[in-house]
Design goal:
Elements: E1 6-13, E2 17-23, E3 28-30, E4 44-49, E5 57-63, E6 67-74, E7 77-79, E8 93-97, H1 103-112, E9 120-122
Parallel strand pairs: 3-9
Antiparallel strand pairs: 1-2, 1-4, 3-8, 4-7, 5-6, 5-8
């Protein structure tokens, strides 16, 4: 079941500007951000678990279907510029969960192309 304590807002511009998409629940995986016309445009985001700030993981992938290079963000945080992570305008898919994903779990997601269990998968 999706966790209603999770908040993720994505912006196409740095410093939380321009086009915005909001997710108000955890437990979601987007196989192709093209479904939102947001492929390769992510530049900043705000990630939050409003109850337990440390219990949230966002994984950004450079290719669709959780493939390619990736960046992992654990715990509530604001990232004003993905240039600082060499990942500006690169994201093509993502996974958002209401817990800490281990490096092993992320490797398994990438090798199988499957999101964790109990996660809503959005396809194009």
């Amino acid at each position: 079941m999706a966790n209603s304590d999770i908040r993720l807002t994505l912006w196409s511009g740095t410093n939380f500007t321009n086009r915005r998409i909001r997710f108000r629940r955890g437990g979601v995986a987007v196989r192709d951000l093209g479904a939102f016309r947001f492929n390769n445009v992510l530049s900043s985001f705000r990630l939050r678990n409003v109850v337990q700030s440390s219990q949230v993981t966002l994984v950004l992938f450079s290719r669709i279907n959780f493939q390619g290079s990736f960046r992992v963000f654990r715990g509530s945080q604001n990232v004003a510029n993905l240039n600082n992570f060499n990942f500006n305008n690169v994201t093509s898919s993502l996974i958002l969960v209401d817990r800490i994903l281990t490096s092993s779990e992320i490797s398994q997601i990438q090798s199988t192309g499957r999101a964790p269990r109990d996660v809503l998968v959005i396809r194009q």
